[in-house]
Design goal:
By secondary structure, the chain is α/β, with parallel strands linked by helices. The chain is 28% helix and 26% strand. It contains 16 helices and 29 strands. It has a nine-stranded mixed β-sheet with strand order 4-3-13-12-14-15-16-17-18, with helices on both faces. An eight-stranded mixed β-sheet has the order 9-8-7-5-6-10-11-21, with helices on both faces. Strands 19-20-22-23 form a four-stranded antiparallel β-sheet. Helix 15 links the parallel strand 27 and strand 28 (521-525). The longest helix has 17 residues, at 66-82. The relative contact order is 0.10.
């Protein structure tokens, strides 16, 4: 076992990393990293490879070459050292996608510090929790979000320095990026970190209780590049990547930074909300060869007024993850762009995708086949492996697995199991061709009218109806404590008789599944609320936070 240590306040915290370093997955892809390793080499090795003048990031800001970006990262690392941070100290990044993100991220890592990647839509109370939980001493923040870091947000935290990026008026409690980096050297030697030292954190979505700090190690990004990047993307320095999912998201981090930087390719970075118009404009202007999206994004693009004018001819590969891809969306995208969508499944705990379709082997709606470098098993509730065509819970092992949740030994024990296996909690079925199919969460089984139902099964059924563009199905508790299913539906075309359409959808589910599985209530919306990563915001739906969304409810 490897031991990772860090400091939380004045108390030493030890994280035991129980991932076996001679695992089958590592041997399969020939993965070997020296004991002394710093993940910033993913960026800085491009200088040694003679790629310094190649474009690293492209966007509305212009072009930053690898030489530019390494200089910026060095300045950030040196500035953080000057600020008095010690090895392992945390640096919170509250940034939109732009050239500052990779500079601050890799600069902090190169200097031996631990960046924390945070969603810029995070509300103040949760941001206070992140600051207190991580003991972050420095935060690098978009100037437009600086006001979020007020006295209340910072109360009870270890935050000492607030660095604002972009046009802003520095306050007593903040410093501008320009002043923070002033006179800092554009060169920096990598700190003497080992492959199993902490590298960066991301927080879980917090769907049950407070979010958990997911700790990743120095070699984890490299492992995803050697597995998914090499075997599925087949990425080269001639590619241009465009990931609409943001960098703070594990999926976006790999897409935007890890994979392109590892081979010297370019990455398009788009700031702001992932609206259809700017996404389509970026595709036409910057000519990506690899495009990363989500089912909800693809659905938005194909239904956009600007879609017909976009030029998709540069793209060679389209990817999707995070949600199940429906045949309707896949077919609509193929009709619009001329490209198939390659679907995969990953998690923040594993850092990126470990099940994936490929351009050569695809089944629409399937999570895919095992990505080289990862071991996958399906087990029943008694821990026995199940055969093909049988349901089981998915377990995954690979050298990018997070060793622990920060300061959460109980949750760590639930998820990070013996011998490096991660218990995902995802119910899956493996068909005879080796493709895995997502069936829902092991913990989302609910009893409706005395019968057990998986809401996702109902959701997929409703989504399959030709009248439906998008759907989310949730189990809701009624006043008498019984559970009911409620479907939130966006139609392809407006309906003059919502009650009749609701009855039609209910009958469809009864016939396709079983009668008791139909949604008792159908709520028609113009759009489904989305998270910052573009996924359906089920928490907003549960909270009935639909005040700004027109809706019609049919019982």
């Amino acid at each position: 076992m490897n031991v990772v240590t860090a400091t939380k306040g004045s108390n030493a915290v030890t994280i035991v990393d129980n991932v076996p370093r001679d695992s089958q997955g590592s041997r399969e892809i020939g993965f070997s990293v020296p004991d002394r390793y710093n993940a910033s080499d993913i960026l800085f090795d491009n200088l040694d490879a003679g790629r310094g003048d190649r474009p690293a990031v492209i966007g509305a800001f212009g072009v930053r070459t690898y030489r530019d970006l390494c200089a910026d990262a060095s300045r950030y690392g040196n500035a953080l050292v000057r600020a008095g941070l010690q090895k392992g100290d945390r640096v919170l990044l509250f940034l939109d996608d732009g050239p500052t993100y990779p500079a601050a991220l890799f600069g902090a890592i190169r200097a031996g510090f631990v960046p924390i990647l945070i969603n810029t839509l995070t509300p103040p109370d949760l941001l206070n929790f992140y600051l207190a939980d991580s003991s972050a001493k420095v935060a690098v923040v978009e100037a437009s979000h600086a006001s979020t870091f007020d006295e209340t947000t910072r109360k009870g935290t270890a935050l000492e320095q607030l660095v604002t990026v972009g046009a802003s008026t520095p306050t007593v409690s903040s410093i501008s990026e320009q002043a923070f980096l002033q006179d800092c050297s554009a060169t920096l030697e990598a700190a003497p970190t080992t492959r199993d030292d902490m590298c960066f954190w991301q927080y879980s979505s917090g769907s049950t209780g407070r979010p958990k700090g997911i700790v990743h190690l120095q070699h984890d990004m490299l492992y995803t590049a050697e597995s998914y990047g090499k075997h599925v993307l087949k990425i080269s320095e001639n590619d241009i990547c465009f990931s609409v999912p943001k960098i703070f998201f594990a999926y976006g981090l790999g897409n935007s930074l890890t994979f392109p930087f590892y081979v010297g390719a370019a990455s398009i970075l788009l700031s702001g909300q992932p609206r259809a118009k700017p996404v389509l404009e970026a595709i036409t202007k910057h000519r990506p060869t690899i495009f990363f999206g989500l089912p909800t994004l693809y659905n938005s693009l194909v239904n956009s007024d600007e879609a017909s004018g976009a030029d998709f001819s540069s793209i060679r590969l389209c990817l999707s993850a995070a949600e199940v891809l429906s045949p309707e969306v896949a077919e609509a995208w193929k009709s619009l762009s001329g490209h198939n969508i390659v679907e995969g499944l990953g998690s923040t705990e594993v850092l990126h995708i470990y099940l994936s379709n490929t351009p050569e082997q695809r089944k629409i709606g399937a999570a895919g086949i095992r990505v080289p470098g990862y071991e996958i098993v399906l087990k029943d509730l008694d821990g026995n492996e199940v055969a093909d065509e049988e349901q089981g819970v998915l377990w995954v092992r690979g050298d990018s697995n997070a060793p622990a949740y920060w300061n959460r030994p109980d949750k760590t024990a639930d998820t990070m199991r013996a011998d490096g296996w991660i218990y995902t909690g995802d119910r899956m079925m493996r068909d005879q061709d080796g493709f895995y199919h997502f069936l829902g969460r092991a913990d989302d089984l609910v009893k409706v009218s005395g019968q057990w139902v998986y809401p996702l099964e109902v959701e997929l059924c409703v989504t399959d109806h030709p009248l439906v563009r998008e759907c989310a199905v949730l189990a809701l508790e009624m006043a008498d404590r019984r559970m009911t299913l409620q479907a939130y539906v966006v139609l392809n075309e407006p309906s003059d008789n919502k009650a009749e359409t609701a009855a039609l959808l209910k009958d469809y589910v009864k016939k396709k599944l079983l009668p008791y599985k139909y949604p008792r209530t159908v709520v028609f919306l113009d759009t489904l609320p989305k998270t910052g990563t573009g996924k359906i915001d089920r928490q907003a739906l549960k909270a009935s936070d639909l005040s700004n969304i027109p809706r019609v409810t049919c019982m």
